[in-house]
Amino acid sequence: MNEHDRLVDRAAREARTVLFVGGLDAGKSTLARATAAFALRLGRTVAYLDADVAQKTVGPPATVGLKHIREPDDLTLERLATADALGFVGSTSPQGHILPLVGALARLRERGRTEGADLIVVDTSAMVSGIWGQLVKYYKVDMLEPDLVVGLQRGEELEPVLGVIQRFFGVELVTLPVHPAVVPTSVDQRATQRERAMAAYFDGDLQRFRVKPTVFMPTLPPLFDLHELDRLLVGLSDGGGGFTGLGYLEFVPEDHGLRLISPVAEPPKALRLGSVRLEDSFRVKRVDLRNLFGTE
């Protein structure tokens, strides 16, 4: 049994919340799935929490997703892609979106617990460097309260992040080298994966709902040009603090109104504006809502 296998064995048996941290192509998802699979074999109730908004395992890009693992087949990539619950972040980068990110994670963790999971396996993003890397991981640990953090690193790339976690939280840290089964991917490959994941989410039967300008958060400024919201990504509110899925807005020139395009059949209670616009290929383009609204 190698060191990665020993970690999986221990986390699956002992942890209540295990959080995997690492840079690009470090093997976080590989170990997270292996831990969930072994815990399931041990008879534990497991939930997989995908805290990465870019390279998705559970749910579409710009979200965090929760998946209950009830049988081994739930850990296939195809089944994992369909979330049991979603949190809307509205961006494919956590930079500048820490508040919606950690708020969504807290809600999903609580939902996982109340729905019976005694082990929550958390897969995180590859943002580990610089100030934003430290801030994002600090607040994830602060909110999720893991009893075990696993760092997968090349050289000493995680030392600043892990140092912050250890100094502020005293949580147990285990550091391992990058998983040997990892297949490196390029920037273009990762962008293509995000594009395909978003396109797949909007594939198939789509609903079209007329939208009133009064249903948005943030609230639209007076006399706002609705054309500016064309192709903007939105989260569909369930009216109880959660989200039923994603949609995008379409400007209707005939009456200068808006239409919501979404695979979700149920009309939303309200819409939260995201910070990305979907191109025709479903590649995302970042949007600063403050500049769009002309406000601070």
Written overview of the protein:
- By secondary structure, the chain is α/β, with parallel strands linked by helices.
- The protein folds into two domains: 185 residues, P-loop containing nucleotide triphosphate hydrolases (Rossmann fold), CATH 3.40.50; 92 residues, Elongation Factor Tu (Ef-tu), domain 3 (Beta Barrel).
- Helix content is 31%, strand content 27%.
- The chain contains eight helices and 14 strands.
- A seven-stranded mixed beta sheet has the order 4-3-2-5-1-6-7, sandwiched between helices.
- Helix 6 links the parallel strand 6 and strand 7.
- Helix 1 packs across helix 2, helix 4 packs parallel to helix 5 and helix 5 runs parallel beside helix 6.
- It starts with a helix and ends with a helix.
- 41% of the residues are buried.
